């Protein structure tokens, strides 16, 4: 139980009198049960099932839009179809990532494979970039006059767009609900991407109305709007995954401190660090215990702290606690 040379002076807000420690087994059972549920292989299977169902729906939506886009010559419908096809591709990436993430820790990956799912979510941005480039190319070709064929908009075009919007709304509701239940950022990212699809599809519908009213320029302009929505969705997903991959804080330090200080016998805590994703958090911290406390007693008390933390936050996969006496022992006394 060492104290670093540059140990900061103990702050009164993080110090309290020593008291009799709580039982070392008071929270362990509930913590282990909650953590097991969060990290259970069945969770990854459930995420994969959701992605597979959404993949089928996205393929149907993409095929309908692309076929009618080519048939009508409407670049906005075609672009929206490519967008939906990219959604299907991202579902495949998500399935691969979830399968890898479900593998247990091994000798080469002692922290597990959980970040593969995050990498899969980040890969969605690559597909979004590709579709933005394709949409912009087609729209600029039509605006510059390189493509002179006027689009042929029929009632079937509107029916297809309205039906695909309805399917996307169902997908959003389904994925959002399952993302919350399973605490999966790959499902949340996919639902966020699909939410952008709804807005782009509505923009396309509005453009088709304009084309029918004799304003064909609205078709490529709508395609540019589609590109904007796609780019915005890509930025949101990239920002969310970057936070995880860059080890941004997951649980507020004050929240962790509140739980730690609820354990009788703990004098204070500091150097609190959390990292990981919303459903798979790694925590390490330093806990101050009375200097005269026997090592075995201090060890048992650290387990009480760990158990209480994992009971309060089941998403914590592991917590490493460094026990040490407070730097200002006069105050502790």
What does this structure look like?
- The chain is mainly alpha-helical and 333 residues long.
- The chain folds into two domains: 12-35 and 249-332, 2-Layer Sandwich (Alpha-Beta Plaits), CATH 3.30.70; 40-245, Alpha-lytic protease prodomain-like (Up-down Bundle), CATH 1.20.1510.10.
- It has ten helices and three strands, in the order H-H-H-H-H-H-H-H-E-E-H-E-H.
- It has helices at 28-39, 41-72, 75-101, 115-143, 155-182, 185-212, 218-245, 253-260, 295-312, 329-332, and strands at 268-277, 280-288, 316-324.
- A three-stranded mixed beta sheet has the order 1-2-3.
- Helix 9 links the parallel strand 2 (280-288) and strand 3.
- The longest helix has 32 residues, at 41-72.
- The two termini are 18 Å apart.
- Residues 1-39 have low confidence and may be disordered.
Short synopsis of the structure:
The protein has 333 residues and is mainly alpha-helical.
């Amino acid at each position: 139980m060492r104290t670093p040379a540059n140990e900061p002076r103990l702050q009164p807000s993080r110090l309290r009198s020593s008291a009799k420690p709580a039982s070392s087994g008071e929270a362990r059972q509930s913590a282990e049960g909650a953590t097991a549920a969060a990290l259970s292989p069945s969770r990854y299977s459930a995420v994969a099932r959701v992605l597979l169902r959404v993949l089928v729906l996205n393929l149907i939506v993409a095929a309908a839009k692309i076929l009618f886009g080519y048939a009508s010559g409407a670049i906005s419908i075609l672009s929206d179809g490519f967008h939906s096809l990219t959604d299907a591709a991202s579902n495949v990436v998500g399935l691969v990532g979830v399968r890898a993430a479900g593998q247990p820790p091994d000798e080469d990956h002692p922290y597990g494979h959980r970040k593969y799912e995050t990498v899969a979510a980040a890969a969605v941005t690559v597909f979004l970039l590709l579709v933005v480039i394709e949409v912009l190319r087609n729209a600029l070709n039509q605006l510059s006059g390189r493509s002179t064929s006027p689009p042929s908009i029929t009632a079937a075009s509107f029916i297809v767009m309205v039906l695909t919007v309805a399917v996307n709304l169902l997908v959003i509701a389904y994925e959002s609900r399952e993302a919350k239940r399973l605490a999966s950022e790959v499902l949340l990212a996919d639902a966020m991407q699909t939410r952008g699809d709804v807005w782009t599809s509505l923009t396309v519908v509005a453009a088709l109305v304009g084309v029918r009213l004799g304003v064909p320029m609205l078709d490529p302009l709508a395609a540019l709007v589609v590109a904007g929505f796609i780019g915005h969705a890509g930025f949101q997903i990239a920002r969310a995954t970057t936070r995880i991959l860059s080890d941004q804080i997951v649980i507020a330090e004050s929240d962790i401190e509140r739980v730690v200080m609820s354990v009788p016998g703990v004098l204070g805590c500091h150097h609190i660090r959390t990292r990981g994703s919303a459903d798979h958090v790694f925590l390490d911290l330093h806990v101050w215990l009375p200097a005269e406390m026997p090592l075995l007693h201090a060890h048992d008390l650290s387990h009480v702290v760990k158990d209480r933390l994992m009971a309060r936050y089941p998403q914590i996969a592991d917590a490493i606690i460094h026990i040490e006496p407070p730097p200002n022992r006069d105050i502790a006394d």
